[in-house]
Design brief:
mainly alpha; 10 helices; about 325 residues
Length: about 325
């Protein structure tokens, strides 16, 4: 007789799940709420089919596992940090790019002034209209070469080419020519203005001239009959009035260049009287500055290009 193996046979039919009570449903609802709070914002919420339905004992392991595998919530990044981090390189770049722009603007202003000075003075040297226009073209061409040659020579020097030496020699020749033209322009205009200021008639000069005229008339009347005591007295008065007129005219001549007089007094005051330059010394310093400054445009353009090149790598780094 065969053994009975009916007890070892597993029934393929499972029992129907039991319905949840009201307390179990409330507890499952609280577990779902707690799981949703612990989960990150971008995580997928749990589906209702995944939640246990049979008993409250089976819900505890699921909540514990969910709380264990839930990652920590990342720290919030404020918009202020992102804005400052992204805008700081742009502020730095704008400051770095502003320097070459200002240098190029100053170079353009000096270039226009230098071209005008050299063209005007070169044209004034011509004996005829044709010669004047030829000198004008020569002066403008020389000033343009002195303007652009430093940048070209610097580029050739960075490229390790010997032609850069030729460029610097050409720049030196045209620079000397431009300096001589600026020297003639500045000296001519300064002397004309100083002479016009020195020859003006002030009220003090007018009063001194009137007093001298009266003294001369009185001397002539007194000395008409012969030279005597009163004639000599009138002659002494005329000499005194002439000295007053000379002093008044010297004061006007001294005020013909008020800048030089003020610079001399300021230098003496700053150095506590140790330095007392003359008006000729200050006139020479002023003349040198007026001659050299209009010819600095080419050097400023060269420096501006070098500043722009040094700022370009920083721009690429900020964009990356």
């Amino acid at each position: 007789m065969a053994p009975d193996n009916s007890a070892a046979v597993i029934s393929l039919r499972q029992a129907a799940p039991k319905a949840m009570t009201a307390a179990q449903r409330a507890k499952a609802y609280r577990d779902r709420k707690r799981t949703a709070k612990l989960a990150p914002a971008d995580a997928e919420p749990p589906r209702p089919t995944d939640l246990p339905e049979s008993s409250g004992a089976s819900t505890r392991p699921l909540a514990a596992v969910t709380a264990h595998v839930t990652p920590r919530k990342p720290l919030p990044v404020t918009p202020a940090r992102v804005t400052s981090a992204t805008q700081e390189p742009h502020v730095t770049l704008s400051r770095r790019q502003l320097v070459p722009v200002l240098l190029n603007a100053a170079a353009c202003c000096l270039a226009v002034v230098g071209l005008t000075i050299n063209g005007w003075f070169a044209r004034s040297l011509g004996a005829s209209d044709v010669a004047g226009w030829l000198f004008l073209a020569l002066g403008i061409a020389a000033d343009l070469i002195a303007l652009v040659m430093p940048s070209c020579a610097a580029g050739l020097w960075h490229a390790r080419r010997l032609s850069s030496l030729v460029g610097w020699v050409l720049w030196l020749v045209t620079f000397v020519f431009a300096v001589t033209a600026g020297l003639g322009f500045a000296s001519t205009n300064i002397s004309d203005v100083t002479l016009a200021r020195s020859s003006r008639v002030t009220p003090a000069v007018t009063a001194a001239q009137a007093s001298l005229s009266d003294a001369v008339s009185a001397r002539d009347r007194e000395c008409r009959g012969g030279v005597g005591k009163f004639c000599r007295d009138r002659e002494a008065v005329v000499l005194d009035r002439r000295r007053v007129l000379d002093a008044a005219m010297a004061a006007v001549e001294q005020m013909g260049d008020p800048q030089a007089d003020a610079a001399i007094r300021l230098t003496a005051w700053v150095s506590f009287g140790a330095l007392r330059p003359s008006s000729e010394d200050f006139a020479m310093v002023r003349l040198i500055l007026l001659v050299l400054l209009p010819q600095m445009g080419g050097l400023l353009i060269m420096i501006g290009r070098q500043s722009a090149r040094s700022a370009s790598p920083a721009k690429g780094t900020a964009q990356v």
